[in-house]
Amino acid sequence: MRELLIPPRGRGFVPFPEPPRLVIDKSLGRDPRDWEMFQDYWLVSDRMKILLETLDSEGARFVRCESRYRDNRVAPTYWLCDIVRVLDAVDEANSVLKIEYPTPDWKVYKLHGSSLVFKEEIVGAAHIFRLCFYPRIVCDQAFKDACKESAVKGIAFTDARKY
User: Fold this and answer.
1) pTM to 2 decimals?
2) Which three-class secondary structure string do you get for 75-131?
3) CA 11: distance to chain centroid?
4) Does 6 have pLDDT greater than 60?
5) In the chain, what is the greatest distance between 2 CA atoms, to the nearest angstrom?
């Protein structure tokens, strides 16, 4: 049986009846990298999980996948990852961005051509978080540097000041 992974309202994971299975089939392409988009979650390697837990243990949640190759050999361990911290941290008054209001009680950021400034008092010590009104993940320079030092593959960065 196949199911879509849809995050529960809010962030995190619902209890799975069994571990998610990841079957790596090289005939379909390359092996997963350290950071891969997977539905509304991420698929991350052990190395990426350790980096996230070391830098910001409250920012992400993980579910271990049962990983194997198509021929049933054991594959490297991968994890479903959800960045669970969501912050309303954009300083709208000092940022350049377009805000749309699809309903009277909800807004959405349109970030093409934007330049974001963040409220540091809200971000605090967080190294990684999601934006409240746009489905992007934000990280700080320490996180970016740690990814570079660890030679993490599959992750890209865009300067929030020049989006």
Assistant:
1) 0.86
2) CCCEEEEEECCEECCECCCCCEEEEEEEECCEEEEEEEEEECCECHHHHCCCCEEEE
3) 11
4) no
5) 56
